[in-house]
């Protein structure tokens, strides 16, 4: 009985570990830098986090199935470039947004087809499409920025509503929709089922191919939205946009409590994971630390999160085998 209560405590801590770490980091940051708690600084952190946080929402779906999507940064970059060029040529915000999203969905369809239907490992497929799409971006833009300094477009990335930046509002809406899908729909239960045991899910009647395919479409969709937000914020589409953002997205999901082995995790704490990564950059900047040191700190945080996740899985497995 005592062991079971300890396991319950560990499980609850694992579920809310990102929130605990976030609170600790906020307190530490406030002590290290008086300017940290200023409204301008907080809004700046949230604005920075919103882009890869949006990508992380879709990545959480992928990781829950035990998969991975390395192409999200390239999808982000291409969607932003297409969106910007359509905005400039048509001056239509609706067409611009829809064209960017269309690119992301198509990329997700391609990834999902080869992973779920052809059954090529996700790492290989998304590594290939990451390189392929990045090449398309460089050819399409000729390596030069595509300016899109149109007020209605820039509002998506630079505007605010009731004092809250638009990218943050859009990110929160995406996470709320993701939470509803994962916890209140049949599809959400199927995603968890595939991550827990793909073969068992298939035997229980879950359409594994369709469900797994869809998570990559969702990932492509959120990446394209992030690309539009980033391009709108900068006022131009950069050929290098989104490079290495897949690492931040995966890290946010892991720190948020989503297990790399699949089947375990919660999408809302991924926001906390994203904010933690944003705080690392912000704190080190306020302390005038070498900006390259952020990679060291982020790497350590990710490593600790992965080790903790592994230990929790081992403890849970041992307890289930003993029937505790």
In short:
It contains 14 helices and four strands.
Number of strands: 4
Mean pLDDT across the residues is 88
- The backbone outline, from C-alpha atoms, is globular
What is the oligomer described by this structure? single chain
How much helical structure, as a percent, in the residues?
Answer: over 70%
Rg, Å, rounded: 20 Å
Computed structural class: mainly alpha
Give a quick account of the main beta sheet: strands, pairing sense, barrel closure. 2 strands, antiparallel
Mind telling me the CATH class?
Mainly Alpha
Point out poorly predicted stretches.
none
The side-by-side strand order for the widest beta sheet comes to 1-4
Listing every helix as H and every strand as E from the N terminus to the C terminus, the arrangement reads: HHHHHHEHEEHHHHEHHH
Write down the domain tally.
1
